[in-house]
């Protein structure tokens, strides 16, 4: 009966989506283009170099090297192998869903047990600095000083999630608990060399595989961004969003959050960018309350990113539920840290820089993150198109050399 109801709900949801697309074609197209532009200008060019670099680092044995080097740190802190340090660093630098992609890759190569992979995925899927500081702080709130508060709350909250999740699955872990290994550079270099020798692929093949693997993941990410952008818009048009926001408003009122932020918060639960933008555009609301909810939705990742992660993890035996549970914990940590750090990391910094609260001016044209965001907006589409073209040529070349029988 439960399976039948699930099938019925899935079919009904798909039917409602199809009818809504027919009923609101113009708005659906507009939302689709918005999602496409976000992927084309920001997501693809910002994630591509990290994805390709990560594939190369894995192939050349650098991950094995870091795994042995950082084992004495990662095992006591997070109860994961040292290779998790690579995933953690790349996840923070490049943003979601790279943490999930790299965790799945390490699991496929048996660097992690399933429990260790689930622990690692729970705290390595973070937002990147470009999005937090460039897009949200500078682009939406027009306030570069806000970036420090959001970034520290986000990454410190992620660290605390990792500490909490180290206790997850201790009774069912397939790998016996081992004491942290001693620091050994010699052993780390030997592991790097052995890994490189084991990979028999020529350099050209390694580079081609890195590009194709990255393209495949980024195309999947683009599809999720576009479809969730459309779903978010359609939910608002057919009246689902206002209905759900009434229930959310009851929860927000318990922590004295105004009703006007319930719709932006709900939008952020589905798609982070839209929610953060709507939050910043809400007028006559205390800035701290806006930032608390933005911190939560950044940590929660949004259902759009969660769907991307679920799709990546589905290629392995890593379960999605621990990751989802960790997102809720991260959201609570990030919101709480925002309250604690608002005065020292924002109010005091603004006073020091002779700004007024709240800041409603234009972004600082000399800001580093503003310039990075501007570069991506101008050259992102060109980078995306060129890379896809290169990927197509690699596929055509390989198909020509090895035609199917």
From TrEMBL:
Keyword flag Chaperone: no
Pfam families, A to Z: Gate (PF07670)
Keywords assigned: Membrane, Transmembrane, Transmembrane helix
Domain Nucleoside transporter/FeoB GTPase Gate: 43-140, 218-314
Alphabetized InterPro entries for the sequence: Gate_dom, Spore_IM_YlbJ
Transmembrane portions of the chain: 47-70, 77-96, 146-168, 292-313, 320-342, 378-396
Keyword hit for Protein biosynthesis: no
Name of protein: Sporulation integral membrane protein YlbJ
Organism: Melghiribacillus thermohalophilus
Native organism taxonomy: Bacteria, Bacillati, Bacillota, Bacilli, Bacillales
